Amino acid sequence: MTPQRQLILETVARSRGHVTVDQVYRQVVQDYPDVNITTVYRTLELLEELGFVRHTHYHGDSAQYQRTDEPAHQHLVCVVCGRDQELDVSVLQPVADELRRRYGFAADLSHTAIVGTCRSCAANP
Questions:
Q1: Residue 113 bridge partners (DSSP)
Q2: Cβ of 85: how many Cβ atoms within 10 Å?
Q3: How far apart are CA 66 and CA 57, in angstroms?
Q4: Could you count the other beta carbons within 10 Å of the beta carbon of residue 43?
């Protein structure tokens, strides 16, 4: 393991919630100024392949990574105001069950972002 990858791994291990590649890069470059952002991308991809992190894409945003030992959850993201609200995993279980029944598709809904309009923005068009 290279020193750069070790720092990236340590940064992710200390993180709570979601982090972007840029956030990880900014932290790592403080200790290792020669690190390349491509190394951060590749390392996060490797950590995902190994099952240490998962990623999600919010509407129009870059990927955000979260450690897999943190509780699975979904997000409701308002396209008007940008508000991000966590959604209990169990809410989408009927959708996963129906996808399996109807299409034979085993959906991984453990970490998802659903985009739309929040209650406040819908009430004030």
A1: 75
A2: 12
A3: 12
A4: 25
| Structural domain containing residue 115 | 73-123
Strand-strand pairing, 63-67 and 53-57: antiparallel
CATH number at residue 43: 1.10.10.10
> H helices of 56-118, where?
93-103
Overall domain count for the chain: 2
Q: Judge if 43 and 83 occupy the same domain.
A: no
Q: State the pTM of this model.
A: 0.71
Reported as a single tens digit per residue, the pLDDT across 55-85 is: 877 656 678 888 989 877 788 888 899 888 8
Q: Identify whether residues 54 and 84 lie together within a single domain.
A: no
In the three-class reduction of DSSP (H, G, I as helix; E, B as strand; rest coil), residue 57 is classed as strand
Cβ proximity of 105 and 96 under 8 Å: no
Q: What gap in Å lies between CA 46 and CA 4, rounded to an integer?
A: 13
Q: Over 23-37, what HEC string results?
A: HHHHHHHHHCCCCCH
